[in-house]
Amino acid sequence: MINPQNILFIDEDNLQTNTRAQLLHEMRDHNVDVVDSLEEVKELYTEDRYDIVIIDFVKDFGVESLKYIDSVNPAQKMITISADEAYSEQKGCQYCVSSHRRRRLIPPFSFPELVSLIENFDLTTCVHKEEFQSIPS
Fold it and tell me: Please, which residues have CB within 8 angstroms of residue 120's CB and are 6 or more apart in sequence?
């Protein structure tokens, strides 16, 4: 039996995001809150409320949301979605792996990949940890 997770999904409010959230709830019994602004993140996010935060960096509020959540709880489990190296930890992926609890999905990815990462978060390492090196200042 799967242990239901409380998930904060930070992304654009669109059909794809809402479908993923609905499938996570209906197929896997996870509780999912979808937000599409920094204001909503600040309103809903508190330490220990969410097991996992998923952030898609399609809008500026994704980066700002990550910074906000890091300021509240740097140990928060996070799945970041982005193909752009600009959204990597500035000190490089090795720093991120050793200092944060983050995993990355690079689009396009399948729904089963997302589910597997959510449900096996603690048993996985970031598969992209060797791809992004320290970004020069």
Answer: none
CA dihedral 23, 29, 35, 36 (to 10 degrees): -20
Q: Can you give the residue ranges of every domain in the chain? A: 6-123
pTM attached to this predicted model: 0.85
pLDDT over 80 (residue 97): no
- Give the helix ranges, DSSP H, for 1-137: 15-28, 38-44, 60-72, 93-99, 111-119
Residue type, 133: Q
Q: In sequence order, which residues have a C-beta less than 8 Å from that of residue 25 and are 6 or more positions away? A: 31, 32
Q: Which of 77, 20, 81, 72 is nearest to 41 (CA)?
A: 72
Determine whether domain 6-123 maps to CATH 3.40.50.2300: yes
Cβ neighbours of residue 90 closer than 8 Å, sequence gap 6 or more:
134, 135, 137
Tokens at 109, concatenated? 């990815």
